[in-house]
Amino acid sequence: MTHQNNNFWADADRNPRGNPRLSRPTHPLARRLGVVAVAVALCIPVARALGDNSPAPVPGGAGAVAVLEPGREPELTTTVASLPVAEVPAPQVIEAKVVVQPEVKTPQCGAKFTVQLGDSWSLLADYAGVGTRELLQVNKANARTLIVPGDELCVPSGARMRRPAPVATTQPARRASSPKPLVVVAAKRFTAAQSTRIIRDVFPDALEKRALEIVQRESRTNAAAYNFCCYGLFQIHFQAHKSWLATMGVTNPSQLLDAGTNARAALTLYKRSNSWAAWE
């Protein structure tokens, strides 16, 4: 290479300001080798990218991909994952306890008797020496079942109807012209508790309270109370009502001293006007 060429490259390397320290002579071969090195450096990544298109071997396992050879059928493989088996608890056996209710025996009908005037369920139960409920059961009745003289009922088996003998107290003879009838004391003396129970047996539930209030006011629940006009628990005026009282079999005021007869007569009197007007 001539001297002129060397000067050319030397002049080309000078900086624009002509600083001698920055202008060094560069050999042309060195420049060419640098260009080749840069080109090789740029081609290496491209070659690597093209080389990665071939399938790489994958280690065997659950996620392995098989590489098929041309003309070869794929082999089907089944991978069964073993899952933990949950333990099912054994069914519990619960013993059911059956409660057997005792059989309620209905009392059997024993001796029969005929209802008389003044009888009531509670009074008849006292005569027979049994409970009122037992007497009602054996006759297939309830506390509201009405009984009238002449009805035939029965007592529970083994019981016996024992009616008290009537006791009559004679009164001094009166003149025939006296309109006031002869009063005979009742055969049975009723306590306040017995009279209250009879009233509850005779009157419907809706009328019980008012009936007991009237009895307390009129006779203080004394079935044997009477005066010149009125008799018994409800102090019924015999002369004023004797016409319809006779239809009940009440022909003598002494009969109104029986608690049951008096209570039934009072209920009939209430029904005649559908009110308590007779006691107001």
Tell me the layout of helices and strands:
Blueprint: H1 3-12, H2 28-51, E1 109-114, H3 121-128, H4 132-138, E2 152-156, H5 192-202, H6 205-219, E3 230-231, E4 236-237, H7 238-245, H8 259-273
Antiparallel strand pairs: 1-2, 3-4
Helix pairs in contact: 3-4, 5-8
Tag the structure with descriptive keywords.
mainly alpha; 280 residues; two-stranded antiparallel sheet; single chain; 35% helix; Membrane-bound Lytic Murein Transglycosylase D, Chain A; two-stranded antiparallel ribbon; 5% strand; rod-shaped
Plain-language structure description:
With 280 residues, the protein is mainly α. Among the domains are: 109-156, Roll (Membrane-bound Lytic Murein Transglycosylase D, Chain A); 192-279, no CATH class. Helix content is 35%, strand content 5%. The chain has eight helices and four strands, in the order ααβααβααββαα. α3 packs across α4. It starts with a helix and ends in a 7-residue tail after the last helix.
